[in-house]
């Protein structure tokens, strides 16, 4: 009888210890899994920033930047646009179990190729920049003109002491940060739009990858956000590094700098045509039987 009571007491104590141990391990496992998701998402996002089409696009954009800080800001804006699209489209795919048809997926990739061609042409000709300057000068009125300052042509007037007063078309709408005024509207919107287009082409692949690894929709969307932040960080580092030879040559070797800018524009056009060919003919967008594998 005594041994039976002792056995029951031991069994009860063992079960209570096991229950407490399980209750302790459950939050620990959740935290471990959450940390793994955050770390994986962030570093894969940084890796995603190094894709060839991304690097070619931002190289074309920052080729005329004079400072690494401005280049890093442009990389952050590109990453922000990319993250917005990844988060919006990826969340819709995860929550509503959407399926991207092959022709639509190929069309989004074709947009990337066309955009690279456009970036290269704009970089080589400077047409859009001149149009922005013309509109800005017309809005400011007499006395406004442009000079090559801070690494780009900037529209400004002069105060009574002859010092330049920068009147960017954005700053005329109200208070804007200094970095915004120095970059200008075109140089703020361009990387943002380019990032959005790149995000459209890559959102399906990222969302499908998440669905295969993470079953909880809330965690999957959180992963997309962390992935986007990693892309922002990675692109800031890449653009700063890419801008270094352009900024140095701009100060010391003007002819070499013009050659680098021209080379970046030609590379963007050539790679854009390559992507269009791959998408349209190899992928079958321009044929009756398109074949698309998200990547």
What does this structure look like?
Helix 1 runs parallel beside helix 8 and helix 4 runs antiparallel to helix 9. A hairpin with a 5-residue loop joins strand 2 and strand 3. This protein has a three-stranded antiparallel beta sheet, covered by helices on one side. It starts with a helix and ends in a 13-residue tail after the last helix. It has a domain of 180 residues. The N terminus is likely disordered. Helix content is 76%, strand content 5%. It is globular, with a radius of gyration of 26 Å. With 295 residues, it is mainly α. It has nine helices and three strands; from the N terminus they run αααααβββαααα.
Outline type = globular
The chain-level structural class is: mainly alpha
Helical fraction:
over 70%
Order of helices and strands: HHHHHEEEHHHH
Strand order of the largest sheet: 1-2-3
Secondary structure: number of strands: 3
Strand content: 5-15%
Reported for the largest beta sheet, the result is: 3 strands, antiparallel
C-alpha end-to-end distance: 70 Å
Tally of DSSP helical segments: 9
Radius of gyration: 26 Å
What is the average per-residue confidence, as pLDDT, rounded to a whole number?
Answer: 78
| Uncertain stretches | 1-25, 168-175
């Amino acid at each position: 009888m005594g041994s039976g009571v002792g056995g029951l007491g031991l069994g009860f104590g063992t079960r209570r210890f096991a229950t407490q141990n399980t209750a302790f391990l459950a939050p620990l496992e959740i935290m471990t899994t959450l940390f793994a998701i955050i770390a994986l998402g962030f570093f894969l996002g940084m890796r995603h920033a190094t894709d060839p089409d991304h690097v070619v696009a931002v190289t074309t954009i920052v080729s005329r930047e004079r400072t690494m800080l401005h280049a890093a800001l442009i990389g952050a804006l590109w990453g922000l646009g990319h993250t917005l699209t990844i988060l919006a489209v990826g969340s819709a795919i995860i929550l509503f179990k959407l399926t991207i048809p092959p022709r639509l997926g190929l069309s989004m990739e074709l947009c990337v190729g066309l955009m690279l061609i456009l970036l290269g042409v704009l970089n080589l000709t400077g047409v859009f920049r001149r149009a922005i300057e013309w509109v800005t000068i017309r809005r400011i009125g007499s006395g406004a003109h442009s000079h090559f300052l801070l690494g780009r042509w900037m529209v400004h007037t002069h105060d009574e002491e002859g010092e330049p007063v920068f009147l960017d078309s954005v700053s005329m709408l109200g208070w804007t940060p200094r970095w915004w005024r120095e970059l200008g509207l075109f140089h703020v919107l361009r990387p943002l739009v380019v990032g959005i287009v790149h995000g459209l082409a890559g959102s399906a692949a990222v969302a499908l990858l998440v669905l295969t690894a993470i079953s909880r929709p809330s965690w999957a969307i959180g992963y997309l956000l962390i992935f986007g932040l990693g892309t922002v960080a990675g692109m800031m580092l890449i653009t700063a590094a890419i801008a270094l030879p352009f900024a140095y040559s701009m100060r010391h070797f003007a002819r070499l700098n013009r050659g680098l800018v021209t080379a970046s524009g030609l590379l963007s056009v050539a790679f854009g045509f390559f992507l269009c060919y791959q998408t349209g003919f190899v992928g079958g967008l321009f044929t009756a039987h398109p074949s698309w594998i998200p990547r």
